[in-house]
Design a protein that fits this description.
single chain, 388 residues, seven-stranded mixed beta sheet, globular, Cys/Met-Metab_PyrdxlP-dep_enz, transferase, aminotransferase, PyrdxlP-dep_Trfase_small
């Protein structure tokens, strides 16, 4: 049965059943595959015939995961990677060469910042940062050698938003490749490709898995662009393991119901903290006080599960709050079923200078809250007692 509904697609898309007629897809733990004859081997390696050749290239489990992600995000094709950062590195590596220039949102994950400043800069790729809250400045940064526009929206951890339709028009006008890190929103809440992006990237480690178990990433786009990605990835080898792909594909079956609860809980936490005297600032896309609230409402289904706050008292105030939490986990991860608190300035974004952190809104008192699936009364009670 064909369906256009997100939940049904996520649950019912499955690799072809084997002769054992299993109801749930098995794990294909094999590194290689057998060919019927020499001609089939030749045809598969020549891309004249579809099929599995080697699990660094494709595997039934990774193929199922990719097919689901493509259907859910409206992509023609995709490639699954071992981690979210492998997805970003592979995308940069596939399309950027010596002499190219990239425009990136200033507020990016710490490791993405390291790729731009310390890795690709050694290979002759230059970059400029632009502010998500100042879209009027983006066009002026485009140079004759600009190849790519890269953006996180919502950003990590500042929860800044930019109008993807605006960026899509800008990329089209200047013949740029628009790449969007869609990790915080997931395909359930936001679909960048429908808004003008060319490639959408996910750290599947986060909400796609959603239970803190496995690492993974995925790159989604047109067949033409993903062919370029595959050509690079086949030789650089960032492939997702079959076991992790199996976990991630199963996790997609519950993504919609999990995100509904994440978003419901996060909005209630944001509304509560916005009124708390010990909280200096609350950033959440679906709070009317968010600077890009109208844009978020236009391009996102709900506000997501991340709330970023600034606690009064700087690093001491943030540390006291985090140490006072009893149920929340203190971890650098996010998007788990369990609520997590992170201090970005000393963990995920510690490699940025203090000036760089301040520019993207990461203060010493900033705390990123990944709101989990626990009962909302218990989440609020833990926050309340930690702020005493």
């Amino acid at each position: 049965m064909k369906s256009e509904n997100f939940e049904t697609i996520a649950i019912r898309t499955q690799v072809e059943r084997s002769l054992h007629k299993e109801h749930s897809a098995p794990i294909y733990l094999t590194s290689s595959y057998k060919f019927d004859d020499a001609e089939e081997m030749r045809a598969l390696f020549a891309n004249e015939k579809e099929g599995n050749v080697y699990s660094r290239y494709a595997n039934p489990n990774t193929s199922e995961f990719i097919e689901k992600m493509c259907l859910l995000e409206g992509a023609e094709d995709g490639f699954a990677t071992a981690t979210g950062m492998a997805a970003i590195f592979t995308t940069f590596g596939a399309f950027l060469k010596n002499g190219d220039h990239i425009i990136s949102s200033r507020s990016v994950f710490g490791s993405t910042h390291q790729l731009l400043t310390n890795v690709f800069s050694k290979w002759g790729v230059t970059f400029d940062y632009a502010d998500l809250d100042k879209p009027e400045n983006w066009e002026a940064l485009i140079k004759p050698n600009t190849k790519m526009i890269f953006v996180e929206t919502p950003s990590n951890p500042g929860i800044d938003i930019i109008d993807l339709a605006f960026l899509g028009d800008l990329a089209k006008k200047h013949n740029q490749l628009l790449v969007v890190d869609n990790c915080f929103a997931t395909p359930y809440l936001q679909q960048p490709l429908a808004l003008g992006a060319h490639i959408s990237i996910h750290s599947a480690t986060k909400y796609i898995d959603g239970q803190g178990r496995v690492l993974g990433g995925v790159i989604l786009g047109s067949k033409e662009l993903i062919t370029e990605v595959m050509n690079f990835a086949r030789h650089s080898g960032p492939s997702l393991s079959p076991f992790n792909a199996w976990i991630l594909s199963k996790s997609l079956e519950t993504l919609a119901v999990r995100m509904d609860r994440h978003c419901e809980n996060a909005l209630k936490v944001a509304e509560y903290l916005e009124k708390h005297p010990k909280i200096k600032l609350v950033k959440y896309p679906f709070l009317p006080s968010h600077p890009q609230y109208e844009i978020a409402k236009k391009q996102m289904k709900q506000g997501g599960g991340i709330v970023t706050i600034v606690v009064e008292g700087g690093v001491e105030g943030a540390s006291k709050f985090m140490d006072g939490l009893k149920m929340f986990s203190i971890s650098a991860n996010l998007a788990d079923t369990r609520s997590i608190a992170t201090h970005p300035a000393t963990s995920t974004h510690s490699k940025l200078t203090e000036e760089e952190r301040n520019i993207v809104g990461i203060e010493q008192g900033s705390v990123r809250l990944s709101i989990g699936l626990e009962h909302i009364n218990d989440i609020l009670a833990d926050i309340e007692q930690a702020l005493v």
